[in-house]
MerR family transcriptional regulator (Amycolatopsis pithecellobii), 304 residues
Amino acid sequence: MKRVGRTFTIGELARRTGLPVKTIRFYSDEGLLPPTDRTHAGYRLYDTRSLARLELIRTLRELGLGLDDVAEVLASRVTVPQLANRHLEALDEQIRRLHLRRAVLRAVVKRKSELEEVKLMNKLASMSDDERMRLVEEFWTEVFDGLTMDAQFTARMRSAKPTLPDDPTPEQLEAWVEFAELIQDPSFRAAIRSMSEKQAAAIEAGEEMSPMATHWSSWSSRAQGYLEAGLAPDSAEGRALAGEIAHLSGDAEPGELAARIESGNDPRAERYWQLLATMNGWPPVPAQQAAVTWLVAALRCLST
C-alpha cells in the first residue's frame, strides 16, 4: 500500500504515465510541473499531486492546447470548459477550411485545372458566406440602381443568396466558381440591366402586370410538353398556343411578341438560378431554353 507523502523521480513518473523522461523534464523546465522536492544529489522529486497534474497536462496537450493555455488552466486563470470552447471554435473554423481545401483539390482533379483556374477556385472557395452575399448584393445593386422596380420582385431577387455547406461537393464548388464569374461578367450585368430597364419603363408607363408574367409558367410548360412529344412549332398545337399568348397579350402582333420573348431569353439568366440551386441544395431548376426557342418559333409561324 502506498504511503502518504510518497515522492517520485522523473523516471518513476515516466514509468507510471508512459510519457518519455525528456517530455516530463521539458514540462518541469517550462514551469508546468514544478518539483515538490529534491534529493541530496539535486534530483527532482514529485508527489502524488504532481502525478495528477502531469496527467492533466498530457490530456490538455493531446487535445491540441498550447503550453500557454495549459499554464492558464493550471494557474486557474481560465477554466477547462472556457478554454475548450475557445479551442472548439478555432477547430471548427480549421475543419471548415480543410473541407473547402479538399473540395478545391477534388474539383481540380475532376476538371484537370491549370494553375490560373486553381488560384481562382482557391480564392473564391475561401470566401465567407458574408463575402459571397456581398458579391451578389453588389450585382443586384448595379442591375437595379436608379430604376423604378416592383418591390416584391426585387426583394425576391435579392433574397436568393449562395450558401455553401461546410463540406461542399466538387459540384457545389464548381457551381460557386461559375456563379461568381457570371455575376462579375460585364456583359451579363448589362443584359440583366437591360431587362430591368424595360420592366421599369413599363411600370413608369402605368402598365399593369403583364399577362406574360402571369401565365408564363403554364405557357412554357405546355411548350416543353409539345417539344418532348415531337410536335413542330407550326403544328396545330403550336399555333393554338401562340394564338392564346397573342390574345391574352391584348392581341399583340405575334412577331413582336416573339422578338420581345427572345430578347429576354438569355440562357445565362437561367444558368444563374441553376447554379444557385446546386450550391444551396435546392431542387434542380429545369432547363427551358429549348422550350422558349420552340415558343418563339410558334409565334413567328403565326405571324406569317
